[in-house]
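Example for tutorial group B:
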């Protein structure tokens, strides 16, 4: 919007770029000769460049890969034709880009080096769409090694979060290479509850719409199987914190769909936690999950709460991780969840509880301790999908 420098709150502001229902504006940069808006549209981050009026000479910076992530960087120079931003993807390591607005060319100023060696040409990324239970198309970002055959026999890791409007943008992670080189497909489900597709995507995955988050993720898993990327026995799912609620809820809804589950500091006892206002996050999160003291919201939460919905049945292999000093998901939540599942489950699949006695919600903070945690998660998944080395 635009107004006079001398405007008072009583004076009207003028729309320069009106609200667009399909676009979420996340930031801006102003320069002497052009204006930059950072936006989300169609599940992708975009960089919109225009004249200083915001309306003329409008164009979006083109990006070279089908799935990617960009992040604004500091641009302190006002009189310049160069915009600096960060670029990465599931294939491309974190890079610093200088984009010449006049020439519409970009230059890689710096790119992270992978000391162990890395050849991006060996890998392929793509965007797919799963059809949710209500017909909505849910984006999936995928990466795998070139030459992969869609024969239903590939080990696959499906990752998700889907809460608080937080978006899981497809970015590079060198830890993931060890999975890809063993034939894994890595997938991110951009499910409702995040903001990948705009504000409405978040609103339709919270409170009394929360089940959309879980059924979207189930649809992503079903799509990967239907497209012969993998099959049930070789499909692992992973999520942490609210993402642990995600995999926990999907586990109780569709225990037949997954071969292995990794739940990191999972929020799995939603009803009892949200009934305890003495906990640091409970009251503030009534707007995310609902207040179970209200009957309608209690009844709705009860339909998906992982702890509440455990029953005597077969479950897939499960690794549950918690931290003794976690102030966001108290250690007793995962512990009581595992204890209840052990008393009910009718299968002989592994059910492991790992408690980190020296960490908080984010797990180990030391570089090598952190890598050991990821190595444990990967080793569990590799073992359960039949990869022994």
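The residue assignment follows.
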């Amino acid at each position: 919007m635009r107004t006079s420098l001398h405007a008072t709150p009583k004076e009207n502001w003028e729309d320069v770029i009106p609200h667009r229902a399909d676009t979420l504006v996340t930031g801006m940069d102003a320069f002497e000769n052009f204006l930059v808006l950072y936006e989300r549209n169609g599940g992708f981050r975009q960089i919109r460049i225009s004249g200083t009026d915001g309306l003329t000479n409008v164009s979006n910076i083109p990006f070279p890969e089908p799935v990617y992530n960009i992040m604004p960087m500091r641009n302190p120079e006002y009189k310049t034709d160069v915009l600096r931003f960060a670029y990465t993807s599931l294939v491309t390591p974190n890079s610093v880009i200088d984009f010449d607005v006049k020439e519409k060319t970009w230059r890689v100023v710096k790119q992270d080096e992978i000391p162990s060696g890395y050849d991006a040409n060996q890998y392929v990324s793509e965007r797919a769409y799963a059809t949710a239970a209500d017909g909505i198309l849910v984006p999936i970002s995928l990466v795998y090694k070139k030459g992969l055959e869609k024969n239903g026999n590939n080990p696959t890791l499906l990752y998700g979060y889907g809460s608080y409007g937080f978006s899981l943008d497809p970015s590079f992670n060198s830890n993931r290479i060890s999975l890809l080189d063993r034939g894994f497909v890595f997938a991110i489900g951009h499910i409702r509850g995040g903001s990948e597709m705009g504000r409405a995507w978040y609103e339709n995955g919270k409170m009394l719409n929360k089940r959309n988050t879980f059924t979207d993720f189930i649809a992503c898993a079903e799509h990967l199987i239907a497209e012969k990327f993998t099959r049930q026995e070789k499909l692992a799912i992973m999520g942490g914190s609210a993402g642990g609620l995600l995999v926990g809820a999907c586990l109780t809804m569709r225990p037949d769909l997954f071969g292995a589950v990794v739940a990191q500091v999972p929020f799995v006892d939603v009803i009892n936690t949200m009934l305890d206002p003495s906990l640091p996050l409970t009251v503030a999160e009534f707007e995310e999950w609902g207040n179970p003291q209200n009957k309608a919201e209690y009844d709705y939460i009860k339909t998906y709460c992982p702890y509440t919905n455990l029953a005597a049945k077969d479950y897939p292999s499960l690794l549950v991780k918690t931290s003794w000093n976690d102030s966001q998901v108290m250690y007793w939540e995962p512990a009581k969840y595992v204890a209840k599942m052990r008393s009910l489950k009718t299968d002989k699949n592994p059910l492991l509880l790992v408690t980190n006695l020296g960490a908080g919600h984010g797990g180990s903070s030391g570089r090598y301790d952190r890598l050991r945690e990821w190595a444990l998660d990967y080793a569990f998944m590799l073992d359960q999908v039949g990869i022994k080395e």
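The mean pLDDT is 95. Compare this with the pattern of hydrophobic and polar residues in the output above.
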